Amino acid sequence: MNLSLAPDIQKRIVERVNSGRFASPEEVVAAAILALDQQEQFGNFQPGELDALLAEGEKSIGKYETLDGDEAFAMRRMRRARKRK
């Protein structure tokens, strides 16, 4: 597969390889795809939203029992879907 990337994207890939964190441009692209997969799976958070949710969760642990992670994400997806309507 051959890709044509904008110069600014190419520069960002090269910077990551030059940092030593990645051995090749292919590794950078693979990491980007994995990050995109995670973002799509767990949802996009607005700035500060995740921190607020974590703080809310920590408060609720003191008041209530804990919640299963899959159930919590399902509830979050439902809340976001309602907000979009």
Task: Provide a concise account of the structure shown.
The protein has 85 residues and is an all-alpha fold.
Layout of helices and strands:
Blueprint: H1 7-18, H2 25-42, H3 49-63, H4 69-84
Name the shape in a single word. elongated
Classification by helices and strands: mainly alpha
Number of strands: 0
Assembly context of the chains: single chain
* SSE topology string: HHHH
Radius of gyration: 18 Å
- Sequence stretches where pLDDT stays below 50 over 5 or more residues: none
User: With helices defined by DSSP (H or I, 4 residues minimum), what is the helix count?
Assistant: 4
The biggest sheet amounts to: none
Relevant terms:
85 residues, mainly alpha, 2 domains
Provide structural commentary.
With 85 residues, the protein is mainly alpha-helical. The protein folds into two domains: 1-42; 47-85, no CATH class. It is built from four helices and no strands. The protein has helices at residues 7-18, 25-42, 49-63, 69-84. The longest helix is centred in the middle third of the chain and has 18 residues, at 25-42. The chain is elongated, with a radius of gyration of 18 Å. The model has no long low-confidence stretch (mean pLDDT 88).
